[in-house]
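Fig. S4 source data, part A: sequence.
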Amino acid sequence: MKKIIIAVVLLILLGLALLVACGDQERASEEARIRAAVIATIEAIPSPTPQPSPTIVILPTTVPLDGLFCEYGFCIGHPAEVHFVDASTIRNPATPSTRAYGILFAFNPNLFIQFVWTAAGGSFDSTTTLRYVLEETDTLHGSQDVILYRDLNVFYQPLGPTAADLLPYGAAATWRCGNRDFAWKAYTPNDGMARALLEEALSRFRCD
């Protein structure tokens, strides 16, 4: 029951995360889709049911399968003990996320990860893109660090305290790859843990 309560709380946090996003008129339709997906996620929270199984994707044998999500034209790493769930399929399995837009989340009692992507529009603005995963109660610390990872400029900033009492630390990051913008956030029980999680995610990240 404790895990179920934690899961519900974290899903509600996911719902709140994208309500504060604001952008220009070019992204109005995308933000409406974000809000609709979040509302669908919250409304679909059921009584205890098994966690949906991760999507099975056939990959080249040279790609490690543990802790790797590959779908929608990109791959991203994650801890092997948690699996990404497509928020769009919680309410309707027939309507998953798309290559142009989507929301994933992964959680257990010791970790919460949220990952969002959307079609790029105009010049890249890390502050605006970061809002897709931030909540009003999230507190950004210090200034953004720019991490050069291969050919990606990744904008990273620690969080704390977070909106989750059980996971008071965290970080958020954003980057552009090809014609899409990506935003990542993690809540963790320990300070500094999120940076290692991001590095793991980036070590296996690639996009079309």
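Fig. S4 source data, part B ends here. Residues 113 and 186 are 4 Å apart (CA to CA).
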